[in-house]
Amino acid sequence: MRTLQPLFEPTTLQIDSPQARLFLTFPVTEADDADMLRCMTAVAATKHLPMVNPNMTLEEMVARRESQAASGVYKVFKINNLRTGAFIGYCGFYRMDIGNFAYDCGLSILEEFHRSGYATEALFLVLDHGFIQLGFNRTTFVTNSKNVGMRGWLENVCGATLEGTFREAWRDEKVDGWVDCVMYSILRSEWEGGMRDRLLTKVNKYLVAN
């Protein structure tokens, strides 16, 4: 019988290259709460996620981390600069469906690191960990339909499949209205069938350039 274990063991992920720029660590800890809060409540993040309270407190961030850890369906990594150890962002597995070997993938990085290739490097590591090391069969990305940057990455860089639009799926209290979101998916057969190599080639171009 296939399993996803050891799913929750402490984990460090890093590109096997002397030019690697970051490493991912699981689990996030109390020491990471302030950085996680800063990243989650940044304008660049909340403008596409209306359900996130931009005024979230540190105490609420602590409760969120503890709740996710207790639920058994989250595996969230901290993204660290390999040379300095500085916090870059976070990414990982959300709402895992263990029985069906599936999960939602999410990522957020600080705005000063946008357009640097860090997101591509981090997502490659998470996807490879999920499909190759753990044996997941399917991952999905759900994002705001107006999140042009994320949608462009999923379609043009990664080659993910658009599965559909969820009309007025997210409540946006800031405008007293609703937001459409879209879902993309990647299958393990697609990852192993060429997507992994294409994305790794993209990552290596960033590494050589920097």
TrEMBL record:
It comes from the Eukaryota. Residues 35-188 form the N-acetyltransferase domain. InterPro entries: Acyl_CoA_acyltransferase (IPR016181), GNAT_dom (IPR000182), Ribosomal_N-acetyltransferase (IPR051908). Gene3D superfamilies: 3.40.630.30. One of its GO terms (molecular function) is protein-N-terminal-alanine acetyltransferase activity. SUPFAM superfamilies: Acyl-CoA N-acyltransferases (Nat) (SSF55729). Signal peptide: none annotated. GO terms for cellular component: cytoplasm. Keywords: Acyltransferase, Transferase. Pfam families: Acetyltransf_3. This is Acyl-CoA N-acyltransferase. It comes from Rhizoclosmatium globosum.
